[in-house]
Specification:
single chain; alpha/beta; Rossmann fold; 7-stranded mixed β-sheet; globular
Length: 256
């Protein structure tokens, strides 16, 4: 990807006469959609690019759910990617108490497992080259636009007390189900904040990373930190063409 602004995606031809559902009756028809701000609604309406966030170590992302989300995105957007923060997920494990090398090994195993689920889901919706739709640490290696954004996020974290405190509080959210509150040391929160910073360029600057005019990041459970970013309440500002939507699915019967 080095030196190439546009990241390969999958183009989906819009279906004539179809209107995208905003509140479907069932998960099989697609998710409910909540844009976080008016600018997010504008990016959603453009329908140029969607980035689906797929989290490691999160039981929500079954193959069936990923299939429903991918089908919805391919029907509504011209180009689609699935983003998996595989490398950064090791930071969550490290912040939870795992030794660094063990955390990295466990994150790699989980990434392979989740990548296989994504590939099965994309196969199910007729994607010819599923791997080309997946963005992970491997595909981002050498992407100078992502690396510059990540560097700016770290500089702001070090320099701005308001932004740093918001990131550390988000680290509490990341670790809430993993670490007892009494054990949430400053060191652990700092490591967890690095996980958030690694994802932040995708939350707010996906168009810049993949080379589109607009994009919508899609996730089922946006943290308060992201809500505040899109409400322009933090020093970090999203790209003008960036949207973020919360996607909700009805409970699905486990298939794996």
């Amino acid at each position: 990807m080095s030196g190439t602004p546009r990241t390969p995606g999958v183009t989906a031809s819009p279906r004539s006469g179809d209107a995208p559902p905003s509140a479907p009756d069932s998960a099989e028809e697609g998710p409910t959609v909540r844009p976080l701000s008016p600018s997010c609604t504008a990016a959603l309406d453009q329908g140029e690019h969607a980035c689906l966030g797929i989290s490691p170590f999160n039981g929500y992302f079954t193959t069936e759910r990923i299939t429903v989300l991918a089908r919805w995105a391919l029907d509504r957007f011209s180009t689609v990617h699935l983003y998996m923060p595989d490398g950064p997920s090791a930071l969550t494990l490290e912040a939870s108490g795992y030794p660094r090398r063990r955390a990295a090994a466990k994150a790699r195993r989980q990434a392979n497992y989740l990548r296989n689920k994504m590939i099965r889901a994309l196969d199910a919706v007729g994607v010819a080259e599923p791997q080309r739709m997946i963005l992970d640490s491997g595909t981002l290696a050498g992407n100078r636009r992502y690396e510059r954004l990540l560097g700016k996020a770290h500089v702001l974290f070090d320099a701005d007390a308001v932004f740093r405190e918001a990131c550390l509080n988000a680290g509490r959210w990341v670790l809430a189900d993993r670490v007892e509150s009494a054990e949430l040391t400053t060191e652990r929160l700092g490591i967890a904040a690095r996980y958030l910073l690694a994802e932040l360029p995708f939350f707010t600057h996906t168009p810049h990373i993949v080379g589109t005019a607009s994009s919508v990041f899609c996730y089922h459970r946006p943290p308060e930190f992201v809500e505040r970013v899109f409400q322009r309440r933090l020093p970090w500002r999203p790209h003008d063409g960036q949207g973020f939507v919360q996607l909700g699915l009805a409970p699905l019967e486990a298939s794996e």
